Amino acid sequence: MRKLILLALVGLGAQLVDGSLGMAYGVTSTTLLLAIGTNPAAASATVHLAEIGTTLVSGASHWRFGNVDWRVVAKIGIPGGVGAFAGATFLSSLSTEVAAPVMALILLALGIYILVRFTAWGLPKGRLGQPLRKRFLTPLGLFGGFVDSTGGGGWGPVGTPAILASGRLEPRKVIGSIDTSEFIVAIAASVGFLVGIGSENIDFAWVAALLIGGVIAAPIAAWLVRHIPPRILGAAVGGIIVLTNTRSLLRSDWIDAPDAVRYPVYAAIYLIWAGAIAYSWRQYRAYRDLETVEAIDAAAKRQRAAAL
């Protein structure tokens, strides 16, 4: 029972992050499941089965708050489902000894990406208005879906920054559209895992625990996306993922590092992580203050223009 409560809390926290950033539910949840010794394919299958419910509720919540562009959902979600099914069947064919370090490497890469992206740049805001073309979204969906199922997460870390960087869709709609399209990806990946490893290797009580936590958090996250500082949250979550998967790799059969190597590496990650959060906080405060000054100046100019 204690483990189920912990999983529900992880699902709640992961969905709060995912619904606010457009990423990290899968990588956060899968990282925990791997840390407690779950088979890599079963861990990814558990997370994706839970995501069918969480992404449905999250998508509905984002839609109610006006955060969804349905054209983007269709153009990226369908190829994402194809990529997710392919990735699920590929991961199911690997042995546990090979799959565990491979998944840890993918998750570590995604964690480093999230940490660097949000520490250095936050959520970029480019030019808006131009349509997102299918020739851009189709390959992005295929790649994101494949990475998502093989790594237990990755749809958000691949899709969200790429669309944000295009500058053609406002950040809240990028996050809402990625979260909504992940429903298709979750269904396709789940079918792939059920075909590949069967239902007997999946603990459905764990699925239910992650699902309950995520469903509770989904509408809260859809509201928070307008208020929470994503730069700080992204740096914090990225650090957790980097630390946990570095630990998994150093203790794997591939490396099997001694304590004299592992503990200095952990200490270095902690220092970098703390520095990243502190830097993110300072940058967030600086940009917030700058935007406030610019807003005041713009209002003053409008008042002067109206008076003339």
Question: Descriptors for this entry?
Answer:
308 residues, mainly alpha, globular, transmembrane, membrane, Probable membrane transporter protein, TM_pro_TauE-like
Return Rg in Å. 20 Å
| Biggest sheet architecture | none
Low confidence ranges: none
Number of domains: 1
Number of helices: 11
- Strand fraction equals under 5%
How much helicity do the residues have? Answer: over 70%
| Gross morphology | globular
Distance between the termini: 70 Å
Counting DSSP E segments of at least 2 residues, the number of strands comes to 0
Strand pairing plus helix content: what structural class?
mainly alpha
Chain-averaged pLDDT? 79
User: Element order, helices and strands?
Assistant: HHHHHHHHHHH
Subcellular location: Cell membrane; Membrane
Organism: Catenuloplanes indicus
Protein name: Probable membrane transporter protein
InterPro entries: TM_pro_TauE-like, TSUP/Inactive_protease-like
Structural summary, described in words:
There is one protein chain. The chain is mainly α and 308 residues long. The protein has one domain. Helix content is 82%, strand content 0%. It is built from eleven helices and no strands. α1 packs antiparallel against α2, α4 packs parallel to α6 and α5 runs parallel beside α11. The radius of gyration is 20 Å and the shape is globular. The mean pLDDT is 79.
